[in-house]
Amino acid sequence: MEQFWVVENPYNPRMNDLWQPAREAALGRVEPLAVRVRPVKLGDVVGQTHLLAPGKLLRRMVDADAITSLILHGPPGTGKTTLAEVIAKSTNRRFVRENAAGVGVKRIREIIDDAERILGESGKRTILFLDEIHRFTKAQQDVLLADVERGLITLIGATTENPLFAVNSALISRSTLFRLESLTEEETRAVVRRAITHPRGYAERSVTIDDDALAVWAIKSEGDARRALTALEVAVLSSGDAGAAIHITKQIAEDSIQQKVAEYGDDGHYDTISAMIKSVRGSDPDAAVYWIARMLDAGEDPRYIARRLAILASEDIGNADPRGVVIAQSCWDLVERIGMPEARITLAQCATYLACAPKSNAAYAAIDAALADVRTGRVLPVPMYLRDSNTSPRDSGDGSGKRVRVIEGEHYEYSHNSDGQVSGQDYLGVEKRYYEPKDIGAERVLREHLERARAKRSPR
Q1: pLDDT number for residue 382
Q2: Is this prediction's pTM over 0.90?
Q3: Nearest in space to 67 (alpha carbons), one of 53, 86, 80
Q4: Over 80: is that where the pLDDT of 352 sits?
Q5: Positive or negative torsion for Cα 402, 405, 407, 411
Q6: ∠ at Cα 105 (100, 109), nearest 5°?
Q7: Same domain, yes or no, for 285 and 311?
Q8: How far apart are the C-alpha atoms of 201 and 370, rounded to whole Å?
Q9: Domain ends where: 256, 275, 300?
Q10: Based on the structure, what is the number of domains in the chain?
Q11: Distances (CA, A) of 298 to 75, 182, 260, 262, 457
């Protein structure tokens, strides 16, 4: 068996560049399939047409060799590393790859020194690719930022997180952000077919795959090309002798890929709960139940889901169905008491009821409008006849011993002594309308009552 020893020389970085071909040859013996068949030119990249189609921004930047610092973000297996390497090759720039979780300040300084030296000797610029850039520390940024800003280093960062939250603003302001999307099922099929015929894939082996087997990987890989290629590699390596023909059936495909796991990082947490809330607001109980199932399967705390249902019961349903907030409160209480897995049923009952209930955001809009007036307008004094009678009271003088507020002939009118329990008295002092009930559900009744009350009030 051949043995390879490829060791970096920490005292002479230039030798590392000379040894790069030997290093790549050695690694080629052990590289996984997903690395071996990685595209080397833009035309081979599958998917991401919103970035790479003719006329799109990233494609124009590459074609014009006008690459500035970039941050590529998106789900795993969408081609962030591949795209960075293709860009480097397409623009004929030196490519240095590091993982932000493991690179230190010393190594960054070495990269900068090498980039400056090589630029002076050959005029070749350097692309520094930082995988997991969200792990880049403040100290590392301080070392790198100045050289990125003056163009000595072209930084390409890759992250599965939302860079607006996960990457410091100093890097964001110096970079162009590109979002990579999960591959479609057809694009995933294309990736697998390409690997079967690729010279560094299985072109030299007789590999055939059934359509239903290919469909298994297209669905279960969730748009992650790496997962699909790993499944293909497992299927091939576990299917008989190295020289034998290989036929991949649906059962082999099922056995070769791990159970589908929903993507649910920080973005998934917020995106999925947002989808659930908007589904309930849009009166779609089927979508609401699906998003709840997605969250529960990913390990989301059911109490968090119950809390958000309680919020939207007031925000989006309100007085159109006052039972909604009561049901949401009961759901939250029961979820706290019974826990999973039974709590899933309670959550589904609450979500489906709220989704089917009539909707009104009138109460939500009313309090926000009133708060805006309080914060930006003149503070209104409480009318004298509405103030607490225990603060500086005056006797009414009617011999009853009751104390009421009296100013300019006005006094508080007890509503229950009035016809229809509405006195028509002014309770604010200015003409304002915040609450406008909608003509739906229980709020229709409230609207009718409110119209009568407003009509009875004395002119302001």
Answers
A1: 73
A2: no
A3: 86
A4: yes
A5: negative
A6: 110
A7: yes
A8: 66
A9: 256
A10: 4
A11: 16, 18, 11, 6, 55
pLDDT tens readout for residues 218-239: 988 888 999 999 999 999 888 7
Give rounded-to-5 percent helix, strand, coil for the chain.
55, 10, 40
DSSP code string of 77-115: TSSHHHHHHHHHHHTT-EEEEEETTT--HHHHHHHHHHH
- For the segment 67-82, the average pLDDT, to the nearest whole number, is 89
Q: Is the pLDDT of residue 260 over 60?
A: no
At 205 the three-state DSSP class reads coil
Please tell me the predicted confidence (pLDDT) of residue 324.
Answer: 93
Claim to verify: residue 52 and residue 175 sit in the same structural domain: yes
Q: Which one of 202, 236, 256 terminates a domain?
A: 256
Q: Are residues 286 and 175 in the same domain?
A: no
Residue 36 lies in a domain: no
* Domain match, 225 and 154 both: no
Per the structure, the complete domain to which residue 102 belongs is given by 48-179
| Same structural domain, 61 and 157 | yes
- The answer to whether residue 3 is domain-embedded is no
User: Amino acid identity of 42?
Assistant: L
Distance separating the N- and C-terminal Cα atoms of the chain: 98
Residues 175 and 96 in one domain: yes
C-alpha–C-alpha distance, residues 431 and 150, integer Å: 59
Closest CA to 279 of 290, 291, 288: 288
pLDDT per residue over 110-138, tens digit each? 888 998 898 888 888 889 999 988 888 77
294 and 399, same domain (yes or no): no
On whether both 192 and 242 belong to a single domain, the answer is yes
Compute the distance between CA of residue 73 and CA of residue 112 in angstroms, rounded to an integer.
24
